[in-house]
Each structure stands twice: as C-alpha cells, then as structure tokens.
Specification:
Blueprint: H1 3-6, H2 20-27, E1 31-34, H3 57-67, E2 71-74, H4 80-90, E3 95-97, E4 102-106, E5 112-115, H5 130-136, H6 139-146, E6 151-153, E7 168-172, H7 176-184, E8 190-197, E9 218-224, H8 229-240, E10 247-251, E11 265-268, H9 278-283, E12 288-290, H10 295-310
Parallel strand pairs: 1-2, 1-10, 10-11, 11-12
Antiparallel strand pairs: 3-4, 4-5, 6-7, 7-9, 8-9
Helix pairs in contact: 2-10, 3-10
C-alpha cells in the first residue's frame, strides 16, 4: 500500500499558510501536548530527521514555537527520569509521563507534579508508588511466565523498569485479550495499553525476534483503569486552567488517539498508520488530521503551519 493510499479518507494537516476556519483554530492554540518517540523524536534523538540523518529542524521549530508563545508539553510512556531530563535540556515547561499517570505542570528547580491513578485506589501515605501496588498483585510475574521469550519488562533505554512510578512497561508479542483477562483477575482495576510498535531493540533482551527489525513487537503499559494519555492530558488542561480549543495534541499510536478528547485539534503522524488499529481509532475522532510526512519531519512541517497561522 502506498503512502497516499494509507492516508486515504483522512484529512491532511495543512503544510503551508492555512486559511479560513483552520487558520482561526490554529491561531487559538497556546499548548502543543505531544507524544515523544515516533512523533517529535526519531530514534529517541532530538537532532535526527525522520530518516535518521542529522538535523536541527526539531530544535529550531521548538525555539520558534517558544518565541510565538506556544508551550510544548511532551506526553509519553517514558518515566520521570527520562522525560524530565529531556524537558530540561529542551527547555520545555512541563511534561506528562507514564501514559498520563504522572503530571508535571511546572518544570523548574522545584517541579510541581502529581500522580494520577484514575479508578485505581491509591494511598499517598502508604510509602509505595502505584507501580509497587501493581507489581505486588503478582500479575506481572504471571504474564511474564505465560509468554516466555515473547514478553519482557521494558527497560526504558537503559533505565530499569523498576524506576517507573505509576505503570509497568513491557514489550513483546502477546494475545491482548488474554492479557487483559489476567489483569481483570488481579484485584486492581488495570488495563493493557498498546503504545505502538518497537522499531529497534537496544540493550539486553530475551525476546525471540530480530533486534534490528523486531516485526510485530509492541510496547505495552499495564496501567490503572481510567488513566490514558487522554485523561492525563485532560487533567493537565484542567490544572493549567486551559480551554480545549487552546490545545493541539499529537501522536503516532492508537493510545495517543485518546488525547484527541482533550484538544481542539489532534495531529496523527503518518508513520503511525502502519498500526492495524490506527484507522479505527482515527475514524472515531472528528478533530483528527494526519501529517503528510513521518515523525519528526511531519511534526515540524505541521508546527510550521501553526506558526504561519499565528504570524
């Protein structure tokens, strides 16, 4: 299937100076809440183009957005240690980590942050994190035992999975319905979030696959029920006192599509159309647009259109 065929039936995000109603909608945008890997970043690098070659386009676009008064907030499955450092280096004012479960509204010397656990009971005074509570049910060990060499804890680019605070990160090839049934029997309200395909596996791995081309390998997050990138973004919007039409969200996976409910406009990256659930999820969102280019290149092109509307 060609790239044009993949995007058939979806509205394409404008690539030059927008006009009419779209220009008006873009002029209202004050915040861009964006997935990181596969959306803003290619290969987890801020200085790569979509084909992996060196490029300053992302950094330059972030600077232009900042000059225009548009704040960029990464919303990611990454843990606090990873995304907080990314935000510090790129001078981003806040972040949403762990699929919406950890929200920072002010990235400063004294960050303002909060857990968000949705429907899952959590006692802040327990001295345990929500992640600890999930692991203590035994369901993660049971899942790993059910799918040996097909499922493993995901070590966040070298930072151990145990440093997560709200979710449990996994990667592999499993039967989602069976995994969800195991989570339903765990005693806590949990669900399995699919955060898209793994493009390359770095570091140690026990998965039975080609690490350079891991076909069919997904990133999963065992997550408290009621916590999604969408509800996490909604919570961030409420905490910041924003209106929905002041927010544009962007992503490249079915899990990212939930952010559309918290934003006036939703941008889906062309590379995400490879996922079999993407078309179904996008069809449900009346504010969704697809980029013409993949990941970083597409993100920057669309942000340049936003800047043109504001200029």
């Amino acid at each position: 299937m060609s790239r044009a065929d993949q995007a058939e039936g979806f509205r394409l995000f404008p690539t030059k100076r927008p006009s009419g109603e779209m220009a008006e909608r873009l002029r209202r945008i004050r915040y861009v809440v964006s997935d990181a890997d596969g959306t803003m970043f290619t290969g987890a690098k801020a200085t790569n183009a979509s084909d992996g070659t060196p490029s300053a386009e992302l950094v330059e676009t972030l600077i232009e957005l900042r000059r225009a008064g548009v704040s960029v907030i990464p919303c990611t499955g990454r843990n606090r240690a990873m995304i907080a450092e990314d935000a510090r280096i790129l001078d981003l004012p806040g972040w949403i980590a762990e699929m919406g479960g950890l929200i920072c509204t002010s990235q400063s010397s004294q960050p303002e942050w909060a857990y968000f656990t949705g429907d899952m009971p959590y006692d802040q005074a327990s001295g345990k994190t929500p992640h600890d509570a999930i692991c203590e049910t035994g369901v993660i060990d049971a899942m790993l035992g059910r799918w040996p060499h097909e499922l493993e804890t995901y070590h966040d680019n070298g930072i151990g999975f145990e440093y997560r605070e709200v979710t449990v990160a996994l990667r592999g090839r499993i039967a989602p319905d069976e995994a969800q049934a195991m989570l339903d029997a765990s005693g806590l309200p949990l669900y399995l979030a699919d955060n898209g395909f793994v493009r390359r596996i770095s570091g140690a791995s026990a998965l039975d696959c080609d690490r350079e081309h891991p076909v069919g390998i997904h990133t999963y997050h065992v997550t408290p029920a009621g916590v999604t990138k969408g509800t996490g973004t909604e919570r961030f919007v409420q905490m910041m006192g924003l209106e929905r039409d002041e927010v544009l969200c962007a992503g490249d996976s079915p899990a990212d599509c939930d952010m559309a409910c918290a934003s006036g406009l939703f941008l889906f990256m062309h590379n995400g159309l490879d996922h079999p659930l993407a078309h179904q999820e996008l069809a449900r969102r009346d504010n969704a647009y697809v980029s013409r280019l993949d990941s970083t290149d597409g993100w920057c092109e669309c942000m340049r259109a936003l800047l043109a509307a504001k200029g």
